[in-house]
Design brief:
single chain, alpha/beta, 6-stranded mixed beta sheet, 6 strands, globular, binds adenosine-5'-diphosphate
Length: 373
């Protein structure tokens, strides 16, 4: 199934290759990104949003076609300078080309477990927006920046979507690569266009995954730009005029909080830091209910035993276990076997083949960081 994360990754890779003038490499990524977007559009219940997504997929396919033409016209990399400058001018001018907005349809109730995290998010992010007069009376700050951190696959992206959905806000999904992408424009302009687009909405949530990538890893030419981008984002947030009923929130997510620019974590900035941990036993039970419970199950499937067998598994891991367990009887019946239900043996075999994606050392690092911050 296509996810927004997959789409962004493919699109970013396609655009990065395109930017480098490598049309042969760019083409398949752009096509796959378009296919992914089409799948997302098909699953979208909002007709207006669906039309937007389809139009976006078409733009990506046009770009891929363009790659074909260019690759046929000359060897990769042999791109005339003039053409490149012209492209940048054109693409840099149109924020709609790279700023993806969505109206997510994920509720807090769709997220298994993590009750403490939900309560923290309600307190810091939902209630102040939903009850602005009370928030003002008690001096509770509204909006601003929030950091969701924790191991991969624990539902950080899902939380960001659920927050936007519960606030009835428009969500802007953006990656550091896009902000830094010369192909879409200069970094500073990109940040400005993004915030201008978000501020034009009554309520907006800007979501940036892998936010640590805004910090330069090595001293390279881009680092000066990057060191300007973080303060600019923070300034845009601080400068937002918080009128009642209007909301602008910046949600950053990271699997590597220790790589973050310390400037981002100072008070008044991404100061609400929320740890999204691995699911506990109760949450894993709920995850099995969500992802396995709706499939045809044999009587011997025992969720309590599965919960015991999946200590250390993330939400995404459990979803994958459920999907792979269903593939076993499915493939057998495709091959001509009598359709049968998913058995306990199917699920346990998948669990045995698929260890948890987060190892103990990484987990300890998260717990340490969480305790210190
Ligand atoms: P992250 O952003 O933390 O890497 P995601 O939100 O992208 O994780 O999670 C990947 C997928 O795993 C989600 O789309 C969802 O299907 C599933 N998932 C993860 N955690 C949960 C959870 N607590 N409840 C329900 N589904 C979850």
């Amino acid at each position: 199934m296509a996810t927004f994360g997959t789409f962004l990754r493919l699109k970013d890779k396609g655009l990065a290759a395109l930017r480098a003038g490598d049309y042969v490499a760019a083409r398949p990524y752009l096509i796959q990104a378009a296919e992914c977007m089409i799948e997302l559009a098909e699953a979208n219940r909002d007709p207006a949003r669906r039309a937007e997504q389809e139009a976006y997929a078409k733009e990506l396919l046009d770009l891929a076609r363009d790659c074909d033409r260019r690759a046929a016209a000359g060897a990769p990399g042999a791109r005339p300078r003039g053409a490149r400058a012209r492209d940048e001018e054109e693409s840099g001018a149109r924020a709609e080309d790279w700023i993806v907005r969505e109206k997510p349809n994920v509720r807090f109730d769709d997220i298994a477990g993590l009750d403490e995290v939900k309560e923290e998010i309600r307190l810091k992010m939902l209630y102040p927006f939903q009850h602005p007069e009370l928030a003002q009376r008690y001096g509770i700050s509204v909006g601003g920046g929030v950091l969701l951190y924790g191991p991969p696959g624990t539902g950080k992206t899902m939380f960001a979507k659920a927050i936007a959905c519960e606030l009835d806000a428009t969500m802007f999904v953006i990656s550091p690569a896009q902000i830094m992408s010369k192909w879409v424009g200069e970094a500073e302009q990109n940040v400005k266009k993004l915030f201008d687009a978000a501020k034009a909405e009554p309520k907006a949530v800007i979501f940036m995954d892998e936010v640590e990538a805004l910090v330069p890893r090595r001293r390279e030419s881009q680092s000066t730009v990057m060191t300007r981008v973080v303060p600019q984002i923070l300034q845009e947030l601080e400068g937002f005029d918080r009128k009642a009923g209007r909301a602008l929130m910046f949600l950053g997510a990271t699997n590597e909080p220790w790589s973050l620019d310390p400037a981002m974590l100072r008070p008044g900035r991404l100061d609400a830091k929320i740890y999204v941990p691995l699911p506990d036993a109760a949450a894993r039970f709920k995850l099995f209910e969500i992802y396995l419970g709706k499939r045809p199950l044999a009587d011997d499937v025992d969720f309590a035993k599965l919960v015991e067998a999946t200590e250390g598994y993330s939400g995404a891991d459990i979803k994958a276990v459920a999907e792979r367990s269903a593939q076993r009887p499915f493939l057998e019946s495709v091959a001509g076997g009598e359709p049968r239900n998913i058995t306990m043996a199917d699920v346990l075999a998948v669990i045995a083949e698929q260890p948890p994606s987060v190892n103990r050392r990484d987990l300890a690092r998260f717990e340490q960081w969480a305790a210190a911050n």
